[in-house]
Each structure stands twice: as structure tokens, then as C-alpha cells.
Amino acid sequence: MVAEVTFFILSALALGSAVMVITRRNPVHSALWLIVTLFSVGGVFLILRAPFLFAVQIILYVGGIMVLIIFVIMLVSVDVSGRQQQFSRQWLVGLTTVLILAAELGYALYRGSKGFLLARSAPAAALENNTQAIGTALYQNYMLPVEIASILLLVAMVGAVLMAKRKME
Amino acid sequence: MMPIPPTWCVYLGTGLFTIGVIGVLTRRNVIIILMSIELILNAVNINLVAFSRYFGEVDGQIFAIFVITDAAAEAAVGLGLLIALFRNKETVNADEIDLLKW
Predict the structure, then answer these.
(1) Would you kindly state where each structural domain of chain A is located, as residue ranges?
(2) Number of helical H runs and strand E runs in chain B
(3) Are B56 and A127 within 8 A, CB to CB?
(4) A6, A86, A100, B45: most buried, per Cβ within 10 A?
(5) What residue of B is the nearest CA neighbor of A37?
């Protein structure tokens, strides 16, 4: 009962602040609302028995990516974007397309929601010692993907430095 | 304790995904488009963690970690591109970035 109520509150918070993210004119306000969304999603992770991902969400998303985004907002001067129009020229076409997509997704979920019931019988005990299980899986079964992810991060780092460098000689 | 139904998590993920796609398609500011992409990736993570919970396996959470890694890489490269763009064109407006259009 407590879990259900908490889930509803966190969902409402996540969806509401997500709407605020895409409607604010000032990008700094958007970034602050996005932090609220990320915290709510982290809370949902906690309800779903994923405490390690909750920590990763807060440390990496809120502490890393959001700080990076706010830094870049400071670099590219907010007042320029405050004066121009908020939504793009094709916003009506985009909104219509997305609403059709949402209707399709909602209809498919509504019709197919019985299919999720088979997933329900799993024992909760399998997710005990969450962090230990994730560490074991990462360094045993998912060895190669971890290496590929590290190469991806290296390439992204070099790419970001190259892009943001002042001049190419 | 009975876990919350997986359908609820999928609905939450769908809602976040839809809001993110609306942000990508309708906003002009490139920074907000990048933030909307983060919303979409978070929606994916909710689904992965939810099904990891209901199948009692940890693999979904591993995939969520890889998605977060990709989000970090994407944010770094995207913001680097944005800085380069702002230095050359003095704009963060997606409508004015039309150098490759005819």
C-alpha cells in the first residue's frame, strides 16, 4: 500500500516536472525541473528494488550530466535564447505526430496489458544484495560490453575535447 | 509484499517518453532538445528496471547502467558540438542551424 502511494506520488512528480522541462522559456529553469524529474525516477528505481541504480542516477545524472548542462547554459548566454521564439516552426506537425504515436502506444498497452501478468510470479529474493549481484554480473557475464562502453566513453571524451577546442590547426 | 504491477511502470515510461519526444520535436533551443533526450533515456531505464524487478534477474539493471553510460557520452559530445556551434554561428536555435539544407 505504501509502495503504491509512493509510486503514484513519484510518477505524478516525474511527469509534471517533465512537462515543466519542455515548456519553460529559460533553459536554467528547464534544467532545474529536469533535476526534479531525475530525482523522482531515482525514487521509482528505489521502489523497484534497485538501490545501486538509484545511487548511479543521483551521482551520474544529477551530479554529472546536469552540472555539465548547466555549465554549458552559462557558456552560451541565456539572454539570447530568452528573446527568440520558444517553439519551432513545425511545432504543430510535431505535436500531432507525437499525439498519434502516444495514442498508438496507449492503445497497444491497453490491449496487451494482460501479457505483462506472466512476469509477475518472479521471487523478490532474487534481487537481494543488489550491488553485489550487479558487480558480479558486470565483471563476469558482461565483460565485453563493459570494455566496449569504456571505449565509447574514451571516444566521447576525445570528441568533446575536439569539438569544444578553440581552433583546429 | 506484493510488487506494484509492471503495467504501471510501463505507463509511466510511455508518458515520460512521449513528453520527451514532444520536447525534441517542438522546442527550438538545442539545450532543451538535449534535455528532452535525457527524458527519453530515463523512460527506457524505468522499463528496464521494472522488468528486471518482475523477472527477478539483474540483467535489466545492467542494461540500464549501459544506457546511463550512453547518456553521459551523448551529453558530452552534444554539449561539445553546441559550444562549437555557438562559437561559429552565435545561436542555439535549431531552426537557424540549416547549413546542410540545400
Answers:
(1) 1-79, 130-169
(2) 3, 0
(3) yes
(4) B45
(5) B39
pLDDT tens digits, one per residue of B11-52: 999 999 999 999 999 988 888 999 999 999 999 999 999 888
Straight-line distance from the first to the last Cα atom of chain A, in angstroms, rounded to the nearest whole number: 63
Give the HSE-up count for residue B30: Cα atoms under 13 Å, Cβ half-sphere. Answer: 23
**CB-based contact (8 Å) between A102 and chain B?**
yes
> Tell me: the pLDDT tens digits for A87-107?
777 888 889 999 999 999 989
**Of B3, B74, B82, Cβ closest to residue A76:** B82
CB-based contact, A110 to chain B, within 8 Å: no
CB B12 within 8 A of CB B35: no
Measured in angstroms, the CA of B21 and the nearest CA of chain A are apart by 7
Q: How far apart are CA A132 and CA A52, in angstroms?
A: 9
Q: In this structure, which CATH number among 1.10.3080.10, 3.40.50.150, 1.20.120.1200, 1.10.10.10 belongs to the domain A1-79? A: 1.20.120.1200
Give CA–CA dist A38/A121, Å, rounded: 29
Compute the distance between CA of residue A82 and CA of residue A93 in angstroms, rounded to an integer. 24
CA distance B44 to chain A (A): 11
Put simply, whether the predicted model's pTM sits higher than 0.80 gets the answer: yes
Q: Give the nearest partner residue to B28 out of A76, A86, A105, using CB atoms.
A: A86
Give the cell for residue A57: 542516477
Tell me phi and psi for residue B56, to 5 degrees.
70, 20
Give Cα separations from A42 to A11, A60, A122, A127 (angstroms).
Answer: 11, 11, 22, 17
Domains of chain B with bracketed CATH: 29-92 (1.10.287.3510)
